[in-house]
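Running log. JK asked me to keep both predictions on one page so they can be read side by side. First protein, sequence followed by its tokens:
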Amino acid sequence: MDNELVVFMDTVSRTIIGKKITETADILSVENPLVLNALYTQDPNSSQIKIQTQLLPLFFKEFQGDKSEKIVWEYKKSMITLPTQQPKLDWKLGAQYAQITNPQMVPQQAAPQAQPQAPRESAPVIKLFED
């Protein structure tokens, strides 16, 4: 999916990821853009930096009358910063984008089936309180 996605920075330095619909000399049209939120933490034991990424909708579907409707935003190219070459995104970002923008299209993992329990022998009853 990452070959359909475009990455750029908006005027407030947010990293935006979205599906490119059209592009002209002046306008970039993006369907269902998401903001890439990166959280950095440092492991106190090893001093290694860990990065956690989270994609947040630019406009939440909960605000839309038709929740299944896609939303397209047009960005003036003079107001955004595009990379000189679109990066090949990690597959996890593409999967997260698909899950957020098309949750019905992403296969859900089947819940593990509960194993039937063998009948237990009757255990003695333990009273917690006096009658």
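And the second, directly underneath as requested:
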Amino acid sequence: MKAFDANNGHLYVLSPIEVEPGVDFEDLKRQLNDNTIPFVESDSYNLFQFINLNNIRFDNKTFKLELYFDKKRLKTISFDFVCDKGYEISFEQWVAEMLDNKSAFAWGRMKVDDHPKYNVPLINLSYDLP
């Protein structure tokens, strides 16, 4: 199974959960709890919510994800990963292989960027929602 579908913007690293553009905050929390996937949540006065996930194992990688919700709808996912020994791949190469060297789509954008605070590479997935 692939980690990401560039056609519809769905992220699959939380298998069996399929994270899709605009998913509802409470619905995703319920799915995470139902599948016993540990997470940390924060809610800023019902305007901005975050779900942080650590040590998510998928495809010979360990992911760390931060999901940002605007008014309870998923807007952005920022993440990085560490590869298992023998499976090393750069963030840029991983993203390029998944997206066929594109960065903009009907659902939004995905690119490798520098973390604004820590100056380390970070994969940023942004959904353009109405």
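Observation for JK regarding the second prediction: The chain has two helices and eight strands.
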